[in-house]
Amino acid sequence: MSTKFDFGRTMLVVRSQRLGITTRIGVRTVVVCAILLAIALATAVFALGTGDFPIPAQRVVRALFIGDERFDRLVVWDWRLPRILLALALGAALGVSGAILQSVTRNPLGSPDIIGFSTGAYTGALLVILIIGGGSFQTAAGAMVGGLGAALVIHLLAFRHNVTGFRLIIVGIGVSAMLASVNTWLIMRADLDAAMSAAAWGMGSLNGLSWPQVLPTMLILGVLALALIPAAPRLQILELGDDTARALGVNASKATGWLIALSVAFTSLATAVAGPIAFVALAAPHLARRLTRTPSIALVPAAAMGAALLVVCDWIAQRAFAPTTIPVGIVTGSVGGLYLAYLLVAEARRK
């Protein structure tokens, strides 16, 4: 005799007899993810065809898959495609990072931008640019080390028997403010050329990125995604509270620390490649949850929303003030600032 559970929404049951896995996926979640991916891909094709050498959409698709027109292939593949691929990949990484942190802290303000992980990555990159004088690889490594170092300091300061979401956010805001002061001091002490270079990088931009950055980024993202697969099921359990998680056999402290480390790694990777891109990690999980109407924050919809947000914002950054291209971080910061204000007002009303 089997008992059917009412989940309050239509569920799709997926079974794999070979792997012995059975999982349930909300039909609405699948539809929302498909729509978001369609928007992201349509925007990507549109962005590949716009610029100083406009190319119609059908020729863009032909250049991508057939490539019989040499000039179209040059423009699409060599000049524009690396930037679009990185926008999609880094947007997805920021969406996943924000979704993890908001689930672990059980707070909608639990974002790497607010808690200070992005600021720590910026500090690490600044130290490399202004003091060591390293190139792009050393800057990326510095951003990764800075983000992980900031996360470790915040975690240690917030730890008291266990890490709670509210304490982690408060400590993170304080550490972020201190690191922001350090960043300003470092830029003020630098010579003019180095300071301008560091300040431009700090706005978050996809300008100048090319194929040499694509392959390492995709490889690291693939490794992080594989590491996330076994840890992802613990997110929904941790959202029930540490005591409930322990009752269900989950080591809450260990699982929280591992998930925060993964969140920091996703954010630090995006910061290392393109600089600190604000508010995508904050807004993407929220918007995805509102669209899917799920009881908890899901990773795949957050990734799809992050990819769609960043590729759309990057196209706006390229074309809104053409021929001048502004950093995409300015666009995401403007849009995200409005969303953060709305979020704070909504939270205040809810309480």
UniProtKB/TrEMBL annotation:
<feature type="transmembrane region" description="Helical">
    <location>
        <begin position="114"/>
        <end position="134"/>
    </location>
</feature>
<keyword id="KW-0812">Transmembrane</keyword>
<keyword id="KW-0813">Transport</keyword>
<feature type="transmembrane region" description="Helical">
    <location>
        <begin position="257"/>
        <end position="284"/>
    </location>
</feature>
<dbReference type="GO" id="GO:0022857">
    <property type="term" value="F:transmembrane transporter activity"/>
</dbReference>
<feature type="transmembrane region" description="Helical">
    <location>
        <begin position="166"/>
        <end position="188"/>
    </location>
</feature>
<keyword id="KW-0472">Membrane</keyword>
<feature type="transmembrane region" description="Helical">
    <location>
        <begin position="296"/>
        <end position="318"/>
    </location>
</feature>
<dbReference type="InterPro" id="IPR037294">
    <property type="entry name" value="ABC_BtuC-like"/>
</dbReference>
<keyword id="KW-1133">Transmembrane helix</keyword>
<feature type="transmembrane region" description="Helical">
    <location>
        <begin position="218"/>
        <end position="237"/>
    </location>
</feature>
<feature type="transmembrane region" description="Helical">
    <location>
        <begin position="140"/>
        <end position="159"/>
    </location>
</feature>
<dbReference type="Pfam" id="PF01032">
    <property type="entry name" value="FecCD"/>
</dbReference>
<dbReference type="GO" id="GO:0033214">
    <property type="term" value="P:siderophore-iron import into cell"/>
</dbReference>
<feature type="transmembrane region" description="Helical">
    <location>
        <begin position="84"/>
        <end position="102"/>
    </location>
</feature>
<feature type="transmembrane region" description="Helical">
    <location>
        <begin position="25"/>
        <end position="48"/>
    </location>
</feature>
<protein>
    <submittedName>
        <fullName>Iron ABC transporter permease</fullName>
    </submittedName>
</protein>
<comment type="similarity">
    <text>Belongs to the binding-protein-dependent transport system permease family. FecCD subfamily.</text>
</comment>
<keyword id="KW-1003">Cell membrane</keyword>
<dbReference type="GO" id="GO:0005886">
    <property type="term" value="C:plasma membrane"/>
</dbReference>
<feature type="transmembrane region" description="Helical">
    <location>
        <begin position="324"/>
        <end position="345"/>
    </location>
</feature>
<dbReference type="InterPro" id="IPR000522">
    <property type="entry name" value="ABC_transptr_permease_BtuC"/>
</dbReference>
